[in-house]
Specification:
Elements (H helix, E strand, L loop, with lengths): L7 E2 H13 L8 H15 L4 H12 L14 H5 L2 H15 L7 H7 L20 H23 L5 H11 L6 H11 L2 H7 L4 H8 L6 E2 L1 H17 L7 H15 L4 H13 L9 H4 L7 H8 L1 H9 L6 H8 L21 H16 L10 H13 L5 H13 L1
Antiparallel strand pairs: 1-2
Helix pairs in contact: 1-17, 2-3, 2-7, 3-6, 3-7, 5-6, 6-7, 12-14, 13-14, 13-19, 14-18, 17-18, 18-19, 19-20, 20-21
This protein binds fe (ii) ion (3 copies).
């Protein structure tokens, strides 16, 4: 256990979480990252201030955050061509961002990222009523969506003529003329296209990342983890309180076990994020009422792998990533996805795992009602007898549950 002060780089955290948004179902990989690069390039070309560049970059990385949870069943295209869905993901996105430790202005950038220059957008803002960063994210978003996706498939050269025609027809209608000109001038640079190549973009973002050294403290990290737990839970009506429930249980259990305030917070953060990888699992599998096929089960079982993969990208989150990613491992080695066992699983891993099992048993699912506490603990005692979970820890947990 380290005692050094927690300081997490905000940029690393946001970009790793944007990865979770990008690997959500129906998304195509890297949309957020490339949109962020394009928006950043426009902002730099326009000579905007460092603060504006930072906000635009992070705003673009999470511009579609409103799509990840309850809107997960729609494709990006469906959402971007239907006015009702467009409005919904903008509002949801603004709402989620209001819970993150980002500048309040960023809420507007996310909420208005689909406004059209001529006032035809979903909120009817027009011209300079639309915050400039929202306009920049808007043009970058559509440019990415319309042209780079094709490029990914062909690995070929960009069709500059078609892009120019598109910009001509969108000028003063969808986008401010000045922004079209800026984009046209950036497109002249070979570097722009090389940076956007799928194999380069990640390293490029590492290099350019504005506000690299902005750190957040435990409070900020907790806020972000809470916002993401809401996104994760809202993905399915059957899990709408799941992560939050586990987080509450974990907090109570950690207090009961006498952990330090700092460890209690870290455990809570791990609990909030334990199912982060579920953002990658399609809803029709998550919500399937009947028995899952072998393939469907394999896909569901990949979620703790993604939880760990995403969180491990962030320096300083190593132990939280472990506790969160190990919640389906079992002491007897029969869990997943790493087949860890009692030799390597820590007490903290098991705290999250116990809270998860108990919460899952006691909450309603599509195929059954939630169980009473007594019955859930009985099932868990049986699991402990078969060496799936720690008996010692479970007895403490039982004490806690019956004292609640
Ligand atoms: Fe969008
Ligand atoms: Fe988008
Ligand atoms: Fe899980």
């Amino acid at each position: 256990m380290t005692k050094t002060k927690l300081s997490i780089k905000l940029g690393q955290l946001i970009s790793s979480l944007s990865l979770a948004l990008d690997i959500s179902e129906n998304r195509y990989f890297g949309h957020s990252r490339r949109t962020a690069y394009i928006a950043y390039s426009i902002a730099v070309e326009m000579g905007l201030s460092e603060k504006e560049i930072i906000d635009i970059y992070y705003g673009a990385l999470i511009h579609d955050i409103g799509m990840a949870g309850q809107m997960a069943e729609y494709t990006v295209k469906e959402i971007h061509f239907d006015n009702k869905l467009k409005k919904e993901h903008c509002e949801l996105g603004g709402d989620i961002v209001s819970k993150l430790p980002l500048d309040r202005e960023v809420i507007k950038y996310i909420t208005y990222h689909h406004e059209e220059w001529n006032g035809d957008g979903v909120f009817g803002l027009k011209k300079d009523e639309i915050p400039l960063p929202a306009q920049i994210i808007h043009i970058s978003d559509y440019f990415e969506l319309f042209f780079l996706r094709k490029l990914e498939k062909s690995e070929g050269n960009p069709d500059i003529d078609t892009i120019k025609k598109w910009l001509d027809s969108s000028r003063d209608k969808n986008f401010k003329g000045e922004l079209c000109d800026v984009l046209l001038s950036i497109m002249e640079k070979e570097k722009f296209w090389l940076d956007l190549k799928f194999k380069n973009i990640r390293q490029v973002l590492d290099l350019i990342e504005p506000g690299k050294n902005t750190c957040i403290n435990m409070y900020g990290l907790k806020k972000i983890s809470e916002a993401f737990s809401i996104i994760i839970d809202s993905k399915s009506p059957f899990t709408y309180r799941h992560s939050q429930g586990i987080s509450n249980l974990t907090r109570k259990f950690a207090i009961y076990l006498g952990y330090s305030p700092r460890m209690i917070e870290k455990l809570e953060i791990a609990a909030n994020l334990h199912d982060l990888g579920k953002l990658t699992v399609p809803n029709d599998i998550l919500e399937k009422p009947g028995k899952l096929t072998k393939d469907e089960f394999r896909i569901i079982k990949s979620h703790p792998y993604y939880t760990k993969l995403i969180l491990k990208q962030v320096e300083g989150l190593e132990d939280i990533a472990e506790w969160a990613g190990n919640h389906h491992e079992k002491l007897n080695g029969k869990g997943y996805p790493e087949k860890l066992n009692y030799e390597t699983l820590t007490r903290e891993d098991q705290i999250i795992a116990l809270a998860d099992i108990y919460q899952a048993l006691t909450e309603d699912r599509p195929y059954r009602k939630g169980m009473e506490a007594n019955r859930a603990i009985d099932i868990m005692l049986n699991m402990a007898d078969n060496h799936y979970i720690s008996k010692e820890l479970l007895l403490d947990f039982k004490q806690l549950v019956f004292s609640m």
